[in-house]
Amino acid sequence: MNKDTKKLLIYSLFKNSKKYSIKWSSYFQVYEKILSKYKNKKIKFVEIGVANGGSLFMWKKYFGKKAKIIGIDLNPGAKKLEKNGFKIYIGNQSNKKFWSYFYKKEGKVDIILDDGGHKNIQQISTVHYSLPYIKDGGKIIVEDTSTSYVKKEFNNPSKYSFINYSKKVIDSIHRRSPLLKKKLSFYSKKIFLVEFFESIVVFSIDSRKCFQNKEVANEAKNEWAIDYRNNEYFGELKSKLDKKYGSLNKRSFFRRIIRKIFYRNFMFNLLDNIKIKKIFKDLDN
Asked: What is the rounded CA–CA span in Å between residue 88 and residue 102?
């Protein structure tokens, strides 16, 4: 553990909690980065997987008296923590009916932190069934996502791992780009940002920011810039053709020919892919 982590308030609260808890050392700097703005705010915070309750006491002190701290666990024994002022639900996070019951009781929440079972179905279900019930400005935080790479017990790597699911979410939020020409899905309408840390994935929810993207330009005149986008091999030649045949370039047929020549050339794409393949190999080393 580095010295900066030991200086964090959240780490101090964890170490001095009334009940036993266990966390990975890198998590505390992530907590501070993504959760500090919620301190002393009137929020509903939900943690899945409370065990002895040590982290619940940590969150209670970290967020302050205005926050409502809720725990979810499979173990009925966790109910005894309610005498300390926490609301505890006993249920299976991979069960759709449980989530329907939970949100019927609690309504919308601000933050969910999943420190539950860590299996693909458990982590994915938490995000999928909770997404409609997270307030704008809220977050879904999933811990221990390194299990997406662990074979024993978790049967990963898999096409259906939580990390691959998270990558699909990234695909979905790109639907907001008009270049994809796809309708917005529920995910792309709700999830504004996805952040990846070592063993933690954070989904930031804000439907107000999830609008269909549009290209805009300022009022200044474009005087000299040459368009080299998408093709560095013949960027200048393309620019000269654009200048000479500018009026033709406004016609869809001519535009399609230009794009086919300069942007979809098989040989140039092949050369690019050879270079990229070498970079991809470096990622595995």
From this structure: 10
pLDDT the model gives residue 152: 87
Residue 218 lies in a domain: no
Domain annotation covers residue 219: no
**Where in the sequence is the domain holding 254, given as residue range(s)?**
235-283
Count how many domains the chain has.
2
Q: How far is 258 from 218, CA to CA, in rounded Å?
A: 26
Lowest pLDDT segment from 60-74, 195-209, 262-276: 262-276
Q: Helix 120-130 to helix 162-173 angle, to the nearest 10 degrees?
A: 30
Shared domain for 258 and 164, answered yes or no, is: no
Beta-carbon contacts of residue 86 (< 8 Å; ≥ 6 apart): 53, 56, 60, 69, 70, 71
* Residue 62: closest CA among 89, 96, 27: 27
Contact (Cβ atoms closer than 8 angstroms) between residue 166 and residue 179 = no
Distance in angstroms (rounded) separating the CA atoms of residues 254 and 248: 6
- Kindly state whether residue 165 falls inside one of the protein's structural domains: yes
Question: Best-predicted range by mean pLDDT among 162-171, 214-223, 246-255, 258-267?
Answer: 162-171
Burial 149-186 (b: 16+ CB within 10 A, else e): eeeeebebeeeebbbebbeebeebbebbeeeeeeeeee
User: What is the pTM (predicted TM-score) of this model?
Assistant: 0.85
**Co-location of 68 and 192 in the same domain:** yes
Question: Over the stretch 239-280, which tens digit does the pLDDT of each residue have?
Answer: 655 655 555 455 555 556 656 655 556 666 777 788 888 888
Q: What is the CATH number of the domain that holds 51?
A: 3.40.50.150
Is 76 in the same domain as 41?
yes
Are 136 and 277 part of one and the same domain?
Answer: no
> pLDDT for 13-60, tens place per residue?
999 999 999 999 999 999 999 999 999 999 999 999 999 999 999 999
